[in-house]
Amino acid sequence: MPRDRRIYIASALLLCVGVAAALIVRDDYTVKLMLWIATSALLAACLRFVLLIGELNIATAAFYGIGAYTAGVITTIFNGPLVLAMLAAAVVAGLVAAVFGFITLRVKGPYFLLISFAFTEVVRLKYTQSNIIGGNSGMIGIFPPVAIEPYYPAIMIAIIGLVLIGLYAIERSPLGMLFKAIKSNDQIVLSVGISVLVVKVICVVIASAALGLGGALYAHSNNVISPGDFGFLLSVFVLAYVKIGGEEHMVGALLGAAFLTLLGQYLMGVGAHERIFFGGAIIIAMLVMPQGLTGLALQLGRRLGWATPAASLGQHK
Amino acid sequence: MSAPAMSPATADDILSARNLTRRFGGLVAVSDFSFTLKRGEILGLIGPNGAGKSTVFNLISGFIPPTAGQLSFDGTDITKLRAPAISRLGLVRMFQHGSLVPDMSVYENILLATLVRLRTPSTRDARVRETAAMFGLTPYLEELGGNLSHGRQRLLAMAIATATRPRLLCLDEPLTGLNSTETRDILELFRKLRAEMGMTVLLVEHNMRAVMSVCDRLIVLHHGQRLAEGTPAEISRDENVIGAYLGKRS
Predict the structure, then answer these.
(1) Which residues contact B8 (CB under 8 A, 6 or more apart)?
(2) CA A114 to CA B31: how far, in whole Å?
(3) Disulfide-capable partner of A192 in A264, A268, B21, B113 (CB 3.0 to 4.6 Å)?
């Protein structure tokens, strides 16, 4: 599969560039911006990962938060090592997702969406009621070990990059093919002897474990986390990243996250009405490019004769 | 109608259903229906629309649970098993509509069927290519399932089911919308599947000419109950069947 190999090589290069930039760039703001884009891209990729089975996971924010809080508790309250905190964040988020998935994915319909929304809000309220993790004001002082602090942005970008590549590899594997088949026709999957429920739960668990790890990384780069960071609104923004970037291919999640994060930063300067411009930009983007940025890029490429006609994104070969 | 006499289950039976019943609210879709399928036979299940044929299919393949009655497949009680478990035992069905994934290639569609049965990519690949060849789909492996002609979509649906190498293949109206050449080819395939793989076939079909020519035995279902059972020749002479289903003889 030469096209796949090209994509893996390109993403590996992009990853190296990102890591190098995080090491070389001395401007704090630029580094922060890169980290925002990286975490946004991870969130978008994870939300999209569950979209592969046809489910909109509003609890994307919840599992991210579970990871952030788990890691924060381990490093600040128990003084545990960062590596353990990251692993525990992924495991806890994955386990919670397994239980959550087994309950919500049994039936078709909007139940997963609705319960994932409710779950996100319940978890957020739970944080505000728990004094040991700071209640409403959240947790502070979540730092990586002093020895690695200068390299932390580079480490974070490297880990997120590897997770993204891993998610893409799963999407291209037979398991990813099953996700796609379930979205399109779950009866045929049942009829060839595969439990649709188990495959769906696996999908949600993988996405959530990645989100948990991402949350742990975020907590240690932001140093402060609070319940408000992990409300359903975060998932709504992430959905915008996916839709604007283009749902068909995972590159879309990256593009959408980068585009909207940068746009958000630019509009911050506009002042009080930034949200209006932000919303306006989303509407215009959806009208002008229904397939998102990837669709637009593909169209341009075709017009310029770059893309071969068969090289439609997101199509298994 | 009195319950038909039960023939004792023998080792020759691959599937036996006893007093199978399914109610949907007040509607009795299948009522006290018993039948057996012998290893290696092609059994036709026929009956007018709404007779309960598709419900029988859903019951034996585990897509819906029976309200009452027992099912056993090759010596295993499958009454309480769900669809994936029954499929893994070797009882595989094809659906009346949309038995394929339209936005995946023919190759991937057939590959789906091999995922839980074969472990290595190379054995899976071999199975996919072998099955595609059997159904004449080799030239279309890269084509999207949804882009195939109607006839080839039916072939693909059957190829998916066959790629699991089932012991019992249940086909729900596989001939609908096919022209006479395609129909003849598919009937020839049934015979071949049985001869080469020892496959048993349960067929629900409206095309009477095809059913009569390919089936060893027929069961006529009417209002969820057995109306008649016998060889195609016997069935075509049965007065009850003619009255209820085939219409008046001219």
Answers:
(1) none
(2) 39
(3) B113
Mean pLDDT of A80-99: 97
Test A316 with B104 for CB contact under 8 angstroms: yes
User: What is the spatial distance between Cα A159 and Cα A163, in angstroms, rounded to a whole number?
Assistant: 6
Q: Of B138, B137, B127, which Cα lies nearest the Cα of B197?
A: B127
CB of B103 less than 8 A from some CB of A: yes
What does the mean pLDDT of chain A come to?
Answer: 89
Q: Which residue of B has its CA nearest to A194?
A: B84
pLDDT at B248 over 70: no
pLDDT band at A73 (very low <50, low <70, confident <90, very high): very high
- Residues of A within 8 A of B98 (CB-CB) are 185, 187-188
In this prediction, residue B7 carries a pLDDT of 47
Quick: pLDDT tens for B81-112. 999 999 999 999 998 877 899 999 999 999 99
Which chain A residues touch B169 with a CB distance below 8 Å? none
* Contact yes or no for A134/A224 (Cβ under 8 A): no
Q: Which of B72, B116, B178, B58 is nearest to A187 (CA)?
A: B58
Measured distance CA(B117)–CA(A146) in Å, rounded: 51
Question: Cβ B100–A193 below 8 Å, yes or no?
Answer: no
Tell me the count of A-B CB pairs closer than 8 A: 77
Which tokens belong to B135? 């159904």
- Give yes or no for residue B37 having a pLDDT over 90: yes
Output the CA torsion B224→B229→B234→B236 (10° steps). Answer: 20
pLDDT tens, residue by residue, B58-74: 999 999 999 999 999 99
